[in-house]
Amino acid sequence: MAFKSLDDLLAERVSGRGVLVRSDLNVPLDDDRAITDLGRVIASVPTLQALSGAGARVVVAAHLGRPKNGPAPEFSLAPVARALGEQLGRPVQLAGDVVGSDALTRAEGLSDGGILLLENIRFDPRETSKDDAERLALATQLVELVGGDGAFVSDGFGVVHRKQASVYDVAQLLPHYAGNLVAAEIRVLEQLTSSTEQPYAVVLGGSKVSDKLAVIENLATTADRLVIGGGMCFTFLAAQGVPVGSSLLENGMIDTCRRLLDTYGDVIALPVDIVVAERFAADAEPQTVPANRIPDTRMGLDIGPASVQQFTALLSNARTIFWNGPMGVFEFPAFAAGTKGVAEAIIAATGNGAFSVVGGGDSAAAVRQLGLPENGFSHISTGGGASLEYLEGKTLPGIEVLNG
């Protein structure tokens, strides 16, 4: 793609110049508002470090969660500002608003190399508005924070599939560049779609078939193997006429899954055994049963050891692997073995020369939570939804605008 990069911007004069950076700092928090996975914060550091080190006056826009009615304390970026400062090794100011008087005062007072994080951009409803004029109005105010000779760096890959003010509209008002993170993600996805080395294996998990229907239909025509686990596997099992007990089930998708199995049955691989329990709880008693014999009073919470063995064999000779979605409820130790086993199979294949991509979201969180080596994969994406939409063949607004 013919967009300008961060290196292009750094080759120009950036010292003393305002630079607006759209980062993806949408991190998970626990009940005490402590960050449970720093992945996205860490991934944002290289671009911010490069700009700060070159003397730019950096203003960062990011979101956290989905606030519905304006500012809300539980969605404040305060814990993110602290974590970002720790990772950068320098203070990061947090504005008390998005584009209000505090943000403007702090932005005007930035010294060369200074970094200001705006409060949650989604506190302003114009960010996600469907009205072009409303989004443009917010974008115009964001531009005012970096001045007339400012620049825009898109570095939040997790939001480039959204047509939002801080992602799309600001790029139409300022000279725009792809940050290191966005540029790297695009290179990887282009490799997955344009120069894929066979055999190509796709591993999909997560809860819902409906969330991944388009990518299943698109990749089933190009992949040699489509391995399906997680909660979504139960709708496929039901489509085969198999009882799934009280497992997660999308009744409205059963006919669709039946059609997919009829069309791509030689490509799709489903679990052969399931780890079940009476209830969805970390302390629930696990029991392994054949995939076609799930008791009526049990729900599936993980794939079983025979499924891990089967999937490992299918992945062993792959030259390209894309993985998106855990195989079970990895947050509960008793139901994490399936996800860990499949991840280890991907790591082993990578060690044998395969090109492997972890498609962001829960999969990336699982890698870190289960203590797996991040360098055991060729690439861990920061944007699950954006990755899937790219692989579906969709145009990503935040990428398209960078080419303009």
General description of the model:
By secondary structure, the chain is α/β, with parallel strands linked by helices. It is built from 15 helices and 15 strands. Strands 3-4-2-1-5-6 form a 6-stranded parallel β-sheet, with helices on both faces. Strands 9-8-7-13-14-15 form a 6-stranded parallel β-sheet, sandwiched between helices. It has a 3-stranded antiparallel β-sheet with strand order 11-10-12. Helix 2 packs across helix 3 (about 80-90). It is elongated and about 65 Å long. The model has no long low-confidence stretch (mean pLDDT about 95).
Give the helices and strands, then pairings.
Elements: H1 6-11, E1 18-22, H2 39-53, E2 57-61, H3 78-88, E3 93-94, H4 101-108, E4 115-117, H5 132-146, E5 151-154, H6 165-169, E6 176-178, H7 180-194, E7 200-204, H8 209-219, E8 225-228, H9 233-239, H10 254-264, E9 268-269, E10 273-277, E11 287-290, E12 299-303, H11 305-315, E13 320-324, H12 337-351, E14 355-358, H13 361-369, E15 379-380, H14 384-391, H15 397-400
Parallel strand pairs: 1-2, 1-5, 2-4, 3-4, 5-6, 7-8, 7-13, 8-9, 13-14, 14-15
Antiparallel strand pairs: 10-11, 10-12
Helix pairs in contact: 2-3, 9-10, 11-12
Q: Please report the distance between the alpha carbons of the first and last residues.
A: 11 Å
Tell me the overall shape.
elongated
Which residue ranges are poorly predicted, with pLDDT under 50 across at least 5 consecutive positions? Answer: none
Radius of gyration, taken over Cα atoms and rounded to an integer in Å: 22 Å
Tell me about the biggest sheet?
A: 6 strands, parallel
Number of strands: 15
| Class computed from helices, strands and strand pairing | alpha/beta
> Helix segment count?
15
| Residues in helix, % | 25-40%
Mean pLDDT: 94
| SSE succession | HEHEHEHEHEHEHEHEHHEEEEHEHEHEHH
SS strand fraction: 5-15%
Strand order of the largest sheet: 3-4-2-1-5-6
